[in-house]
Design goal:
alpha/beta, Rossmann fold, 7-stranded mixed beta sheet, elongated, Spore Coat Polysaccharide Biosynthesis Protein SpsA, Chain A, 2 domains
């Protein structure tokens, strides 16, 4: 059980650190907003009554609700909870029990959903084992109020690591104290945050902010807390921290520290990969790339800049770009040729000097072009999105002049990291990149080359490209060096190291054209 002397000290400390102004503000906010305390409990029969009794009484009376969710405990937590309700008639106190053990994160999901359905304004998360001090609830409530904007912050965290020595004095084991700081440091660096602690379980959330976070897709395990911070980062939450003394008594720790740390870092890395578009998890999907999945690349080792270099002087030719998106590349080309067409499902509005056409490339777009024939056709990273790539190549063949040039690119499914993922039994689609969720056909260099040859094109050259590191990650010199090195390695061993590749091919004569030249040739 909790040490009475230590708990007395915590109560005195909470009273000292919560000013009279803050306490009165908390009382006023309780009258203005619907504020609930949510207690997560598992095998907490020895601690639950103490946790409830430590809530300052005048605060407890004004709370909209104090509710406990017993995560299918194996002891008498639920029965004791029912008895506690009778002992605190002045509180709106309720207890619920899950039909099966949901886990720490799973239990939180239920509590937050409960608050959303109840239309509460603030929920304060409290552990049923007494590890966190309920005496600090008034300070947490008061801290929520932003005096400048007169609005509520998105979240308030009670951190044990603002005063690190105090955490040790509260009995935090040295290995946990050290591990907490190292893990928090790494998470802060990776997410560009400045939290003193990622791993406190004493938190309060603005329910209106929480509604916007897809927390229901987070882990049911202990790293749920880290994943909700990641979501807060993505949603640009304002998180305010207050200092909290730690207390480690006789409660049993149920967290495997090593596994927990690994899971936290994995979640952060997954989020970073989702942001790059090369990995996908539903809980970190915030609509990125939904409106603009296309970025014109400026790196000299990029596919776009390679195409630009092919039009370095004015030429009296007619060209077309299929899948032009907004038309940035088409506008550059249009200034170098006699006539240029830009086609996409959206109007290529930035291709001001081009003939702009809007159509679905799955349809028979050749009808829009009538009898126009092209000297050069450009189709960059488009074919893999189409329903019937073979039909698409037939249409391209139809609109091109004999011996005209085709620039066509796609992603390389045989890229080394993808091969390694497959070796490890993983194949995770993302919002863009090789495993873009909208890709309907995946290619290796040999099978794409064979496809082109089967539909009347003679492959002249294949150029490999690295991932767009400097455009998507950083333009620092080191990243540019990595991209340059990758570019050269990719072209040395294309099948293995090409992230995507460009095929330069010539349209050959069709059978009909050869027939005409052979049978109906003039003598």
């Amino acid at each position: 059980m909790a040490d009475d002397n230590y708990l007395k000290k915590i109560k005195e400390l909470a009273q000292k650190e919560t000013s009279e102004e803050e306490y009165n503000l908390a009382l006023n906010l309780l009258k203005t907003y619907k504020i609930a305390v949510f207690i997560v409990a598992y095998n907490a029969e020895s601690f639950l009554k103490s946790v409830i009794s430590r809530i300052p009484q005048d605060i407890g009376k004004l709370l909209t609700e104090v509710f406990i969710i017993d995560d299918c405990s194996q002891d008498k937590t639920y029965q004791i909870g029912l008895e506690i309700i009778k002992e605190f008639p002045e509180y709106n106190l309720n207890i619920y029990k899950t039909p099966f053990n949901r886990g720490y994160g799973g239990n939180q999901k239920l509590g937050y959903l409960y608050c959303i359905k109840k239309n509460y304004d603030i929920v304060i998360l409290l552990h049923g084992d007494g590890q966190y001090a309920p005496e600090y609830i008034p300070k947490i409530i008061a801290t929520f109020y932003n005096k400048e904007t007169k609005q509520l912050y998105d979240a308030v965290f009670a951190s044990r690591m603002i005063n690190k020595k105090q955490a040790l004095a509260g009995g935090m084991p040295l290995y946990k104290w050290f591990g907490n700081q190292v893990l928090t440091y790494l998470e802060n660096k990776l997410l560009n945050l400045k939290l003193s602690e990622f791993h406190t379980g004493f938190r309060a959330y603005n329910i209106h902010s929480l509604k916007k976070a897809p927390f229901e897709f987070n882990s049911d395990n202990f790293h749920f807390d880290t994943e909700i911070i990641i979501q807060a980062k993505a949603l640009n939450w304002q998180i305010i921290e207050i200092s909290l003394p730690a207390y480690y008594g006789s409660e049993k720790c149920r967290v495997n520290g090593t596994k927990y740390a690994i899971n936290c870092l994995k979640s952060v890395i997954r989020y970073k990969l989702v942001r790059l578009g090369i990995f996908y998890t539903r809980n970190f999907d915030f609509g990125i790339f939904e409106n603009d999945n296309y970025q014109f690349k400026k790196s000299k080792y990029s596919l776009h800049q390679y195409i630009v270099k092919q039009f370095n002087k004015k030429e009296n030719i007619t060209t077309i770009e299929l899948g032009a998106n907004k038309g940035i590349l088409s506008e550059i080309i249009a200034q170098k040729v006699n006539k240029h067409y830009a086609i996409d499902m959206i109007i290529p509005e930035k291709a001001e000097n081009a003939i702009k056409l809007q159509t679905d490339l799955n349809s028979d777009f050749t009808q829009l072009l009538k009898d126009e024939k092209f000297d050069v056709c450009i189709s960059l990273d488009t074919i893999e999105h189409l329903d019937h790539p073979e039909e698409y190549l037939k249409k391209i063949f139809k609109i091109m002049k004999p011996h005209s040039k085709l620039y066509i690119s796609t992603a390389n499914i045989a890229y080394l990291p993808v091969r390694i993922s497959l070796l490890l039994g993983q194949l995770n689609y993302g919002k863009r990149g090789i495993l873009d969720m909208t890709h309907k056909r995946l290619y290796t260099i040999p099978n794409f080359k064979l496809l082109l040859e089967q539909y009347g094109f003679k492959v002249e050259k294949i150029i490999a490209f690295p991932p767009p590191i400097s455009d998507l990650i950083s333009k620092r010199k080191f990243m540019q060096f990595i991209e340059k090195l990758h570019y050269h390695i990719s072209n040395f061993w294309k099948n293995l190291f090409a992230y995507n590749f460009l095929v330069i091919a010539r349209r050959t004569d069709s059978l009909e054209e050869i027939f005409e030249k052979t049978i109906n040739k003039k003598t």
